[in-house]
């Protein structure tokens, strides 16, 4: 049944013009000239006749209270065109504060059992890393301040069709309202929230179909068709049930598949075998800044197709669905987890939950031996990445001269015996260095394991990213500089250094991934590392926050200096990443900026650290790099 419908809609793709190349019923409902009638605020735009740049546009997007802010009647008229799907939500934690939304039971739930549910993913406002919103309303048992809307949107369109999205895009563009797109709210940099915005919530754009054989351009093979709001667990569990296709998906179950994760890159456990999330797109359906609905693939709108695959989300359009590459059935990993530590303080539960059982940690006599072991792991990670594997290694400072390391290898497409054999030389090296690591036996797990969609909690972590170039592994001087900077960051800085070792190079990106916008720097890297400030910064003042950030930035500068030609991964980076254009997009940046200006001369789609975002900035009252303030033009 499902299959028949998928084939039918694919048939339509070939026969009808681009704008009606629908994959799902929710894409068949589109905005027409008849719907617009005399409601000029929802009229389509025209990129050709727009006055690009600042001319004729207000300096700032309107805020509630401004004379230009739509009247209640106008919002109600928009709501009517949306058939009632316009929401005006308050933050959930308003339940903890005195006032009209006070609700002790709901507050208790937010403080306790929320992590056993899917609550935050089903909330129209929540972002999981809260500081970019301004921390204006978090759940606390005895609040002292007030709960305010802060950096959260003013209105949310609970999108159920392409038409809903077209209405929101046109209204925001025509009425000078800040526009936001939210999917799962996992973004770390505040890219899915914004003060005084009209937010398009794509969460309910579900839909998943499988096509055993799909052909486009040079690709012929299995494919999946996914809705713009589909989460990884939904796709993984469906693949598990059909047992007939392997998909490259986020390993975190509640991440969006076709949203920020893949449009910004999308690292995953299969990245050294089949590439990044961005490499899986065969075709995308998109509502663009003029309000039109288009298809972008190798045959049409090729610039858009390029940009949406690694050029960053929330920049070029709203993705409503995508056709996604599939691979031969039932892929599996084999691998293991091992750890060693030194000093009196012992590690607690690691943040990363490995699919493999951890062997007991090996005690190491001294710090020097610890780092020799870490360096051996890092040297070995090059061969594991080039053999299709994914390495995960946390080096952490536990205080009191205590250091811990926990590492995992997930070797894709290797049997347990093959992986055991493959990893054994590393253990021999560790023993030769004085780390009594006995040989461990790898276990096998399927790629499509059943996932549970719960466990997300609110947090306030701050960290920074670095992509480590392959060149650092190619000379002993380069390798030593890199490892010395890592050691300094952990030992002197006191930070957690989390390295993910994989190689998403052009060969594994394949077709059409190798023509995606993913930065050449990312292609040429062998490790994406994040460096974490250990403290939760919820209670810190602005100056404390900025001081902790500056301190981290100094150690990041040390890592940058040791890794010339490296960059940073935009989805897991610092909001204050220096020279982010080069760092995130490398040599693709000028082309991405030109595409952005061509498809969105109005700057309707805006999020921090995206191509073209330089033209606008959020003016915050406290000087924090949050979304809690008016969005105004910079004149750039
Ligand atoms: C717990 C956790 C684990 C993570 N693990 C990984 C990982 O393994 N690999 C990895 O690469 N990253 C990982 N990330 C980072 C992740 O890639 C980013 O947070 C990403 O932005 C999430 O995208 P989203 O669409 O799910 O979330 P959102 O925060 O809702 O959206 C992120 C951005 O995408 C835009 N967007 C969302 N949907 C659409 C759409 N349909 N069309 C256009 N724009 C859209 C939003 O406007 C926003 O700019 C992780 C993050 C968290 C919190
Ligand atoms: C717009 O059209 C509607 C009918 O579709 C009509 O009721 C209304 O008066 C019109 N408004 C204006 C301002 O012309
Ligand atoms: C939009 O209309 C629906 C149904 O009429 C209503 O429930 C909802 O509150 C309205 N939204 C706003 C923001 O007023
Ligand atoms: C949820 O959080 C509570 C405390 O806030 C914790 O005790 C519990 O282990 C968590 N449960 C899950 C499934 O993470
Ligand atoms: C909270 O709001 C009330 C009413 O608007 C106001 O009187 C009070 O000063 C506010 N408290 C804080 C801490 O801002
Ligand atoms: C959003 O719409 C979906 C249907 O698409 C509905 O199930 C859900 O309850 C709505 N959410 C809110 C907060 O209105
Ligand atoms: C799985 O795919 C194969 C072709 O690769 C096909 O022959 C088989 O019928 C499919 N099985 C199911 C359960 O769909
Ligand atoms: C360091 O050791 C002291 C004394 O054993 C202990 O009180 C303290 O908690 C330890 N600090 C850390 C960070 O483990
Ligand atoms: C998986 O391994 C088999 C056997 O070693 C090999 O033939 C096949 O090409 C591998 N698949 C991929 C995608 O690398
Ligand atoms: C090394 O580890 C093995 C297995 O845990 C143990 O039997 C042996 O005594 C250890 N050797 C030393 C020198 O610690
Ligand atoms: C489906 O998931 C279960 C549990 O995680 C696993 O045992 C099984 O092997 C998976 N099936 C496939 C085809 O991946």
UniProtKB/TrEMBL annotation:
Residues 1-21 form the signal peptide. Keywords: Oxidoreductase, Signal. It holds the Pfam family FAD_binding_4. GO terms for molecular function: FAD binding; oxidoreductase activity. SUPFAM superfamilies: FAD-binding/transporter-associated domain-like (SSF56176). Transmembrane segments: none annotated. Residues 149-329 form the FAD-binding PCMH-type domain. InterPro entries: BBE, FAD-bd_PCMH, FAD-bd_PCMH-like_sf, FAD-bd_PCMH_sub2, FAD-linked_Oxidoreductases_BP, Oxid_FAD_bind_N. Belongs to the oxygen-dependent FAD-linked oxidoreductase family. PANTHER family: FAD BINDING DOMAIN PROTEIN (AFU_ORTHOLOGUE AFUA_6G12070)-RELATED, GULONOLACTONE OXIDASE. This is FAD-binding PCMH-type domain-containing protein. It comes from Parachaetomium inaequale.
């Amino acid at each position: 049944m499902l299959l028949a419908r998928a084939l039918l809609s694919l048939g339509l793709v070939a026969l009808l013009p681009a704008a009606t190349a629908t994959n799902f019923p929710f894409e068949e409902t589109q905005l027409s000239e008849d719907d617009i009638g005399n409601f000029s605020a929802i009229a389509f735009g025209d990129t050709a006749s727009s006055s690009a740049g600042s001319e004729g546009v207000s300096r700032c997007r309107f805020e509630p209270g401004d004379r230009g802010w739509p009247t209640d009647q106008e919002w109600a008229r928009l709501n009517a065109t949306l058939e009632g799907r316009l929401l005006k939500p308050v933050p959930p934690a308003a339940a903890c504060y005195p006032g009209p939304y006070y609700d002790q039971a709901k507050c208790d739930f937010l403080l306790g059992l929320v992590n056993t549910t899917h609550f935050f993913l089903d909330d129209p406002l929540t972002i999981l890393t809260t500081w970019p919103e301004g921390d204006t309303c978090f759940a606390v048992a005895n609040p002292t301040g007030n709960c305010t809307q802060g950096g959260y949107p003013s209105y949310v369109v609970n999108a159920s069709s392409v038409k809903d999205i077209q209405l929101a895009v046109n209204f925001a563009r025509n009425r000078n309202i800040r526009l936001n797109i939210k999917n799962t709210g996992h973004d770390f940099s505040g890219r899915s929230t914004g003060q005084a915005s009209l937010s398009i919530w794509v969460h309910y754009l579900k839909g998943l179909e499988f096509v055993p054989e799909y052909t486009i351009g040079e690709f012929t093979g299995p494919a999946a068709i996914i809705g713009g709001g589909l989460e990884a667990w939904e796709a993984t569990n469906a693949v598990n049930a059909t047992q007939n296709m392997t998909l490259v998906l986020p390993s975190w179950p509640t991440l969006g598949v076709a949203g920020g994760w893949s449009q910004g890159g999308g690292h995953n456990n299969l990245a050294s075998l089949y590439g990044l999330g961005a490499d899986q797109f065969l075709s995308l359906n998109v509502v663009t800044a003029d309000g039109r609905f288009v298809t972008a693939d190798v045959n049409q709108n090729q610039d858009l197709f390029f940009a949406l695959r690694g050029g960053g989300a929330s920049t070029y359009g709203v993705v409503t669905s995508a056709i996604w590459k599939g691979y031969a059935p039932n892929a599996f990993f084999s691998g293991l987890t091992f750890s060693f530590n030194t000093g009196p303080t012992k590690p607690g539960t690691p943040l990363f939950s490995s699919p493999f059982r951890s062997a007991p940690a090996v005690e190491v006599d001294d710090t020097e031996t610890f780092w020799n072991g870490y360096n051996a792991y890092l040297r070995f990670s090059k061969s594991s990445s080039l053999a299709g594997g994914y390495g995960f290694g946390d080096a952490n400072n536990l205080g009191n001269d205590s250091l811990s390391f926990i590492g995992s290898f997930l070797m894709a497409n290797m049997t347990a015996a093959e992986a055991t054999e493959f990893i054994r030389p590393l253990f021999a090296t560790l023993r030769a260095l004085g780390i009594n690591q006995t040989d461990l036996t790898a276990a096998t797990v399927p790629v499509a394991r059943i996932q549970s969609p719960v466990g997300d909690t609110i947090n306030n972590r701050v960290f920074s990213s670095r992509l480590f170039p392959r060149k650092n592994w190619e000379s002993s001087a380069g390798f030593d500089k890199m490892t010395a900077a890592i050691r300094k960051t952990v030992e002197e800085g006191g930070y957690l250094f989390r390295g993910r070792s994989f190689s998403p190079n052009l060969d594994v990106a394949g077709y059409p991934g190798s023509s995606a916008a993913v930065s050449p720097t990312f292609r040429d890297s062998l490790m994406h590392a994040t460096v974490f400030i250990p403290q939760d910064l919820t209670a810190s003042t602005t100056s404390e926050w900025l001081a902790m950030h500056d301190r981290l930035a100094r150690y990041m500068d040390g890592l940058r200096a040791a890794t010339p030609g490296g960059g940073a991964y935009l989805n897991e980076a610092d909001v204050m990443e220096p020279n982010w254009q080069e760092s995130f997009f490398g040599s693709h940046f000028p082309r991405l900026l030109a595409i952005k200006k061509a498809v969105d001369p109005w700057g309707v789609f805006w999020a921090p650290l995206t191509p073209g975002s330089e033209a606008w900035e959020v003016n915050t009252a406290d000087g924090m790099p949050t979304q809690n303030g008016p969005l105004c033009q910079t004149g750039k």
